[in-house]
# Entry
Amino acid sequence: MEVSGARHSWCLGALLALFPACSDDGPSGSSVVTTSGGGATSAAAGQGGVAGQGGVAGQGGVAGQGGAGGAGGAGGAPCRNSLAVSVTAPGTLSQTGLYSDIANKTLAPVVAMFSPTYPLWSDAADKTRWIYLPECEPIDSSDMDLLDFPVGTRAFKEFRLDGKRLETRMIHRFGEGAADYLFAAYQWRDDESEADHVPNGVEDVRGTEHDIPDVDACHRCHGPYPSGGGLPSRYLGFSALQLSHAGPGLTMASLSASGALTQPAPAGFQIPGNSVEKAALGYLHANCGNCHNDSANGLLFPFMNTFVKTTDTLVTQTGTYTTVVNQATEFFVKNPECLWRVNGGDLQQSCVHHRMGERGSDEMKNVDQMPPIGSDVVDAVGMAAVGAWIQSLPPPP
# Structure
């Protein structure tokens, strides 16, 4: 089967466990993946197979997932994605496809909630995340550390503080290119009836200290950015490592069972080490690894790699250990007492811990926070987790 406009054409009945079935008569404006050749249209689970062929190998259904299916016939029908691809950000959140009824906060049936094991610190804001995965193509999981999402994928993250909805961010992949991602932030109105696109960002939203980033700041964390930063996958919290848990929402187990991954991994992956090591490595992975990594988008200088890979089975194998522990500083040298990235057993001489505790950037005052943007409040819990790990490490030789 040949596919136009996509790397794979699928329409698995098993995906009904997560999203509605692929349909011939999707909503107006739906994007379409066309197929060539004869064959009957894939139907719901237990009835059909891949559109245009009547099922895998002409038999229908995916083994153990989609049922027997029908034999190939004449004239196949296309699989239609529920949400159309767009190269421009809609003016309001209600137009993004997240809600079917924004006034009543009713989510669209095509989005699903997910939650990362190690969340990014966002100044104590409450966050909820959702994703729309196009129905007609799976996630390419041949590289579990850098999932390759189909064109049309949309991820959303809502921020709340003091009981108020503040903003909802969206990342939308609209093309195959490395930079073909749309970043948009929407500020909620005071009555929370709608949220409006704010490309230039907003400070102190709705009387809080929460700031909405501008588009440039989105690229600094997610990439691509001229000086480095981000990951080619762009969707930082939706990863094989982050979804390897038994909590609510989409997980590696549910994605694998539904056929949403080209290479399933239902058992998932875990950060190595004991509880202290896992907590620290997970925190640094989520809060630093988006910039400090060895991918095509990682920072080249100073080179550090705090991105834990799914193939890391020992703490000493991780980039965090090999590039951070007992490694001398080469960039941040303003503090004479901060001479090591991490000095085993010594928090005062561990630059990573020192900069986690700073907020603001002022060279004259010897202040230079990490992460450099997106936070105005020190994460005391995160500092304690990383500090406990540092104190457990051996000193430099």
